[in-house]
Amino acid sequence: MKKAKLLSIVLAALMVLPLTSCSNKKKDGNESSSDTQASEVKSEVPKIDGYDLLWNDEFDGEKMDESKWSYDPHEPGWTNNELQEYTTSTDNVFVRDGNLVLKAIKTQKDGKDYYTSGKIKGQNKSDFQYGKVVVSAKVPEGQGLWPAIWMMPKDESHYGQWPKCGEIDIMESLGNDTSISYSTIHYGEPHAEQQGTIEKKGADSFSAKFHEYSVEWEPGEMRFYTDGELVLKVNDWFTAVEGEEDKPYPAPFDQPFYLQMNLAVGGNWPGNPDASTDFSKAEFLIDYVRVYQKPSYDTNVKKPEKPFREALPDGNFIRNGNFAEAENLEDDIDWKFLLFNGGEGAAKIENGEMIISSTNCGTEEYSVQLVHPDLPMRKGHKYKLTFDIRADEDRKCIVCVSAPNAGWIRYFPDTSIRLTTEWQTFEYEFAMNEKDDNNGRLEFNMGKYKDTATIHITNVRVEDITV
After folding, report:
1. Which CATH number does 33-293 carry?
2. What is the mean pLDDT of residues 7-27?
3. What is the spatial distance between Cα 127 and Cα 258, in angstroms, rounded to a whole number?
4. C-alpha dihedral over 58, 61, 67, 69, to 10 degrees?
5. Distances from the Cα of 69 to the Cαs of 83, 258, 261, in angstroms?
6. Which of 111, 266, 291, 341 is disulfide-compatible with 272, CB 3.0–4.6 A?
7. Are 114 and 146 in contact (CB under 8 A)?
8. Which CATH number fits domain 336-464: 3.40.50.300, 2.60.120.260, 3.20.20.140, 3.40.190.10?
9. Nearest residue to 451 (alpha-carbon basis) of 374, 388, 393, 384
10. Nearest to 462 by CA among 374, 398, 353
11. 148 has which bridge partners?
């Protein structure tokens, strides 16, 4: 979850629980109780080479195990402008057929729509420092629903309130598009983040079936997986009070954290529910939670050096800026074409041009997006951005240089340009006043404004013009 504000209190001992558990498990979330009972299977919690099982919950009981979890009630608007009240009601948090169920419920209060939902946490009951977390879950679909499996520090005040304290998001999904799952860490001040995504469509989507989400958290590295596939690897975080030197690495992820799970309704990221949201199916199902730990960890780690890449011989930091090469636009190397939030379209390189055609502009400026990552941005340096662009009909486009690992701040601000059918050359100069960042990103955003005319781009350059 984004920008959570939690207070941690009394310290608690780690829990060491048995290595096996008997489970009656179903995997598609659709069987009735009688079907489940008819297909009972006792399963042993799997061992993982190099790890010991620290604690686990298979959700085989009649209710939530309060030796491992606490309800986490909060009023509406507690964070992210979310709409739900998190309650202690067993209508919102309960165990059914071997799954923990976090259920969002729509009611009326004072003549207006009112939402309740479930959130649980392991704070002061099952905290741990370093390990491998494995969670099997199935998310609900529906506009405005926002399930999450995430971790926060046991003592948030140790390095300071969010984001200085750090946050580990193992899985987040948005109910309006459950083909995408997000894994993210938040840290620092100013706020920084690193995020990975994975896509599974149709019958394999995150709402169609259970998927297994995990993180391997070590002193100098975190690796996030979905169904065993690596989604994100990070090792270069920091934390600091703004204006001061960074705290010693690997702060803030060198302290005990606890696991929590919730189903939010509405908020800044997913937007609010609408008439299409079916609350009879608004259930976040968790099949099991397993936390493993290595016998020991080497805490003598150093932040890796990440050198800033050099410009091309002609001074350009943009690779393939003249589109001489018809490269793969789906991988993470050089140019990449992206669609979000209802955006529909395609991109191709042809005759020295990047050609973007849209059939649906989507709901956000970034719904149809062309990006070039990996731009070295140095504090105190000055840069020049130039490109040639036209469209088949007059339309709008927005260009910027963003910071995916630094809270999506802008090194070059969102700049709206009006395209015509004639080629135009645009040139901008900007100063880099933030922390050094070797992962700036050039963006061309072509969504939202009911413009779908085809766009042509060429001769893209980003140069360091510091004197």
Report:
1. 2.60.120.200
2. 37
3. 4
4. 60
5. 23, 10, 10
6. 266
7. no
8. 2.60.120.260
9. 393
10. 374
11. 172, 262
Secondary element (H or E) of residue 414: strand 410-419
Nearest partner of 113 among 270, 2, 279, judged by Cα: 279
331 contacts 307 by C-beta, under 8 angstroms: no
- Say yes or no to pLDDT of 433 above 70: yes
Catalytic residue list? 167, 172
Q: Take residue 467 and report the two structure tokens written for it.
A: 């004197």
CA distances from 324 to 330, 349, 351, 404, 460 (A): 17, 8, 8, 27, 12
CA distances from 198 to 71, 228, 336 (A): 30, 12, 15
Q: Domains of the chain: which residue ranges?
A: 33-293, 336-464
Output the average pLDDT for the chain: 90
pLDDT of 315 reads: 97
* Whole-structure pTM value: 0.78
pLDDT digit string (tens) for 323-360? 999 999 999 899 999 998 889 999 999 999 999 999 99
**Which of the residue ranges 8-22, 100-114, 182-196, 399-413 has the most confident prediction, judged by mean pLDDT?**
100-114
| C-alpha dist (Å) from residue 267 to 81, 146, 341, 407 | 5, 9, 16, 17
Q: How many whole angstroms from its chain centre is CA 151?
A: 13
Query: Which band of pLDDT confidence, cut at 50, 70 and 90, is reported for residue 7?
Result: very low
Peptide bond into 270 cis (omega under 30): no
pLDDT tens, residue by residue, 135-167: 999 999 999 999 999 999 999 999 999 999 999
Which contiguous run of DSSP H or E holds residue 34? helix 33-38
Token digits for 2? 């984004």
Q: How many CB atoms lie within 10 A of CB 344?
A: 15
454 has a pLDDT exceeding 70: yes
Shortest CA distance to 418 belongs to which of 443, 399, 441?
Answer: 399
